Amino acid sequence: MFIVKKFTLLFRFLLLDVFFIKRRINTLELRSKLDIDEMNDLQNSFLLKSLHIAKKKLAAYHDLKVPTESSEIKKFISSHCPVITKEDLLTKRSQYYPNKGKAHFLQIVGKSSGTTGTPLEVFRSFDSILWENAFVKRHWQSLCNVKTIRRATLRGDKIVDSSQNKKPYWIYNKIENQLILSSRHLTKETSKDFISVIKQFSPDILQAYPSTAFQLAQYVIDNQLVIKIPYIFTASEMLYPYQREVIENTIGQVFDFYGMAERVAMATECRFKNLHINSDYSYVEILDENNNPTDEEGFIVGTTLHNSIMPLIRYKLSDRTKWKKGLCQCGSNYPMIEPISGKFEDIIYDTEQQAISPSLITFAFKGVNNIERSQVAQISSQKWVIRLVPTKNYRSSDGSQILKNLKMFVSHNINAEIQLVNEIPRTVAGKYRWVINETTTKIESEYNV
Ligand SMILES: [Zn+2]
After folding, report:
1. Could you please report the per-residue DSSP string of 299-339?
2. How many Å apart are CA 253 and CA 205, to the nearest integer?
3. Which of 252, 178, 149, 123 has its CA nearest to residue 8?
4. Can you give the CATH number for the domain in which 120 is found?
5. String of b and e for 380-418 (b: at least 16 CB within 10 Å)?
6. Has residue 106 been placed in a domain?
7. Same domain for 117 and 263?
8. CA–centroid distance, residue 254 to ligand 1 (Å)
9. For every one of its 449 residues, what pLDDT tens digit does the chain have, with 9 covering 90 and above?
10. Ligand 1 center to residue 387 CA distance, Å?
11. Confidence (pTM)
């Protein structure tokens, strides 16, 4: 397994980084300096190209009369291209996939892991994968001004067999200067070894899920150790304010990244803690329930600009946010959005069917001790379960305090019970959902470069 993984990494490096990536990053760095009008023109020309590809390759757009001029393209899209969803991709495959939905032998197929139901597939061009990597690296380099970045990765990578019970739980990818750690093996017992190997490696950046960086920070505190990493790049899960606070007070500055397997939107956090939509990555709209543009909170809808195999046109995600007005002090011309408020399917409701913000729920846990991990799940329209992994000092009064706090700080109309568990399962990709609505069927969207 090690050999295969190392070979894959070597192959990826040779193909991607040496010959292609560096030039693309330079191009992207120049693009990030364009003014608003120049960026708009560039985006329009990419959009026009994507639409031509869609017309040629995807049955759903065969009859589209694509304009010749790019300046009117956004107006054209909003009046001629319907908003599509994951449901459309799953049920009308012959319409929205090239070649009637059949992948060629060498076709690159990106997959999002489904927690329930069918995983979603997206065909990707080789070129789009190179661009994806270049965009991610542009984000790192915009903050971390180091020529060769040393990177530790603590995400869901399956690099060590799950049955393995002794170190090393990591591999070193020398060519990319990367230490890849198996977050699935990070426990109270192994935490000292993880912290020690990361310290020894001395990375410039840590790439992590918010939950794995938070877990690492908690173990650093528990073991009374010190570890400093200048930049923590989080992605793939909701980043909660309490997680950011603990990680920043313990390890280093957090910069969040928003993306997904469908690759229709990318937002990167700058040093002023604003999330910027990368306008040269995709075309993003924020639309209300009736698919009209809104300045209030709405759904993120994105159109691919770089996938020449299977462009997604006006693809609606279940993530919600709103535009943030004004200009950022960082000087970037990319528009800003408010933090993503979570997946629509994972919104949970009180017994009066009032939606409850996960950030608000964090108040119920403030000052409550003796809990190693928790999860808040809606199991029916009238009931929540608070799953707790207790520490050895846990008393039933700790759980009662949470229930009391929920009523006091969150909503009077919450009917919840405490459930003590040995562990809280992660998703197939090793991700952790703190707030989860188990009454809805959902398919997980996943960012997986
Ligand atoms: Zn900024």
Report:
1. EEEEEESS-SSS---SEEEEEEE-EE-S--TT---S-EEPP
2. 10
3. 178
4. 3.40.50.12780
5. eeeebbbbbebeeebeeebbebbbebbeeebbeebebeb
6. yes
7. yes
8. 14
9. 444 555 565 555 555 555 678 899 999 999 999 999 999 999 999 999 999 999 999 999 999 999 999 999 999 999 999 999 998 998 999 999 999 899 887 778 887 755 444 578 899 998 899 999 999 999 999 999 888 899 999 998 888 887 898 999 999 998 889 999 999 899 889 999 999 999 999 999 999 999 899 999 999 999 999 999 999 999 988 898 888 999 999 999 999 999 998 999 999 999 999 999 999 999 999 999 999 999 999 999 999 999 999 999 999 998 899 999 999 999 999 999 999 877 777 788 999 988 887 778 888 888 788 888 899 999 999 999 999 999 889 999 999 999 999 998 888 999 999 999 998 887 777 778 888 888 874 434 433 33
10. 37
11. 0.83
- The size of the chain, in residues, is 449
Domain boundary among 224, 241, 258: 258
- C-alpha of residue 274 to centroid of ligand 1, in Å: 5
Q: How far is the CA of 268 from the centre of ligand 1 (A)?
A: 9
What residue numbers bound the domain in which 359 lies? 347-437
What distance in angstroms lies between residue 323's CA and the mean position of ligand 1's atoms? 14
Domain limit, last residue, from 312, 337, 362: 337
Distance from Cα 26 to the centre of ligand 1, integer Å:
20
Judge whether 22 lies within some domain.
Answer: no
Residues 91 and 69 in one domain: yes
Query: What total of structural domains would you count in the chain?
Result: 3
Q: Ligand 1 centroid vs 278 CA: distance in angstroms?
A: 11
On whether the CB atoms of residues 248 and 433 are closer than 8 A, the answer is: no
Domain check: are 383 and 320 in the same one? no
Q: Are residues 397 and 420 in the same domain?
A: yes
353 domain residue, yes or no: yes
Assign residue 181 the CATH number of its domain. 3.40.50
Please tell me the distance between residue 333's alpha carbon and the centre of ligand 1 in angstroms.
8
- Answer whether residue 151 is part of any domain: yes
Tokens 């599509």 belong to residue? 84
